[in-house]
Specification:
Layout lengths: L7 H35 L2 H22 L2 H7 L4 H34 L4 H8 L2 H7 L1 H9 L3 H24 L4 H23 L9 H36 L1 H10 L1 H25 L3 H38 L7 H15 L2 H9 L3 H22 L3 H28 L3 H28 L4 H39 L15
Helix pairs in contact: 1-8, 1-12, 1-19, 2-4, 2-5, 2-10, 2-11, 3-7, 3-10, 4-5, 4-6, 4-10, 6-9, 7-9, 8-9, 10-11, 10-16, 12-13, 12-14, 12-15, 13-14, 13-18, 13-19, 14-17, 15-16, 15-17, 16-17, 18-19
């Protein structure tokens, strides 16, 4: 079945949004990766693990800090000014409440993770909550108006400052505190720049109906994010609690590259597709077209990257992080596959939010979260590699549920889903077989081995995609050309966008 083409104007805005948002996220993650390469040589796994304890704890408080208000503001179609004012006041109050809670729960968190060193570190890192809350509305408005190119500056600056401050302080011998002060410095600069670039200021006009609506919507999102955060971090909780700080340090490092190249795509797709799908929600055919377009585009990136990372992990872990991080190799291979599987369940989640059905995600999490806890708890008996393998099993289970739920809304056939994903899946499969053959034939190692594997994988995947689905490749190239390379005299002013 041939999908109807989406609105060219909205399609080009979407592609620009994805391009600039992914460029921003990837740029920030590259800076984080480069700083991690240096910090991995200056700090110990236990110190990364201690900060990992703090980040897991802070993430739950950060959900209260935002309370789903940013998603609600993006999805609104009316009374935007009044809603933004209400969101700003709420974010200030929630930021200071969340910071206060870090002081209250720090001893309990230290007892849970069995380390008293956590208390002062967690309390200082809690300053991130009011700092980020102050910049939440300006940042959300930049996303709402698809101003993703403008948003690059605060986000890139945040990662740059965080990395530079952390490296300098680590070099001076400040240990774990270098990571904490780096986090705070990055958040502060991002908040200041968001206010400057958004060009927004509160008018203190309020509307009781708008306030009630964003609170109700935000409440559903908050419940969803609490469950999602628990699901996404239960592995860190279990590894830290059962296996210790050093194991958590290795496990955290095993996520670095997969997060950079796989999870970042999920986050970018969510940021761009939520406002776009919200715009298209009343046109069911256009919404359906966007949905399968996102699935197809996402799989074109995710499938080869996930397989490629799994097969090159034995090369890049010792190459970039040094040999002391070799215990992270097998977990990195498994986590790459797990994130690749889980990524395909991300677009259905955005669909539920865009169509005003966030409660579906909450209901699905009632099934997903207990299953994840059971699997990951049982898998800790095989160490961090067992936990990573458990993530693969959970990804398969969650994707199956998400696919069924999305079909409940979109009413598509199995043929539509196969048509969207089969070319990319088969291309990635052939790529993996070729790379495994290369590993058996050639004695590869070090930078040379890594380079040969990457170049071979890219070449095989591109050739397979061209052979199996050249129309999609041509359409993507044409859309990119019309969006970014169109003649100057044909450029039109993009509504509400600087991109």
């Amino acid at each position: 079945m041939i999908e109807p083409d989406p609105s060219p104007d909205l399609a080009q805005k979407t592609l620009k949004g994805v391009f600039w948002s992914y460029s921003t996220f990837l740029g920030g993650k590259v800076l984080t990766f480069l700083s991690t390469v240096i910090l991995a040589r200056l700090l110990l796994p236990e110190q990364f693990g201690l900060v990992g304890y703090c980040l897991v704890t802070i993430q739950y408080l950060d959900i209260l800090n935002s309370a789903g208000i940013n998603n609600s503001l993006i999805a609104r179609r009316e009374n935007i000014e009044e809603a933004a004012n209400a969101a700003f006041v709420a974010n200030i109050l929630l930021g200071f409440i969340s910071f206060g809670l870090t002081w209250v729960i720090a001893p309990a968190a230290a007892a849970f993770f069995k380390t008293e060193e956590l208390i002062p570190v967690l309390r200082l890192m809690g300053l991130n909550l009011p700092l980020s809350g102050l910049g939440m509305v300006p940042d959300t408005l930049l996303q709402r108006h698809l101003r993703f190119r403008t948003r690059m500056l605060p986000l890139i600056s945040q990662n740059l400052i965080k990395g530079v401050v952390s490296i300098i302080l680590a070099w001076m011998g400040m240990g774990v505190w270098s990571l904490v002060w780096g986090q705070l410095a990055g958040t502060a600069i991002a908040t200041v720049l968001a206010w400057i670039l958004a060009g927004w200021s509160p008018t203190w006009r309020f509307n009781s109906r708008a306030t009630g609506e964003i609170a109700t919507y935000g409440f559903h999102i908050m419940l969803l994010e609490i469950a999602g955060a628990f699901r996404n971090n239960v592995d860190y909780l279990l590894v830290g609690r059962i296996l210790g700080a050093a194991a958590l340090g290795y496990y955290t490092m095993s996520y670095r590259i997969p997060e950079l190249l796989i999870r970042s795509v999920n986050i970018v797709v969510g940021r761009v597709s939520l406002p776009v799908m919200s715009i298209a929600q009343k046109d069911r055919e256009q919404l359906r077209s966007f949905y399968f377009g996102y699935l197809r585009s996402l799989s074109m990136i995710i499938f080869p990257v996930a397989v490629g990372l799994a097969l090159t992990a034995p090369f890049f872990i010792p190459l970039f992080f040094s040999g002391k991080w070799n215990p992270a190799i097998l977990p990195t291979m498994l986590i790459s596959l797990a994130l690749g599987i889980a990524a395909m369940g991300h677009v259905p989640g955005v669909l539920y939010k865009a169509t005003g059905r966030p409660e579906l995600l909450s209901r699905l999490n009632l099934i997903k979260v207990p299953a994840a806890v059971a699997v990951l708890w049982y898998s800790t008996r095989w160490g961090i590699s067992g936990v990573a393998a458990g993530q693969v099993a959970i990804g398969i289970f969650s994707l199956s549920l998400d696919t069924l739920a999305a079909n409940y809304i979109m009413r598509y056939s199995a043929k539509d889903l196969i048509n969207a994903l089969a070319p990319t899946f088969l291309s990635a499969l052939v790529m993996s077989l070729v790379l495994l053959a290369v590993l058996r034939i050639l004695p590869l190692s070090g930078l040379l081995g890594f380079t040969v594997m990457v170049l071979t994988g890219v070449l095989v995947y591109l050739l397979m995609m061209w052979w199996l689905d050249r129309d999609t490749v041509r359409t993507g190239i044409d859309l990119f050309r019309r969006t970014f390379l169109k003649p100057r005299q044909l450029m039109t002013v993009e509504m509400g966008s600087d991109d």
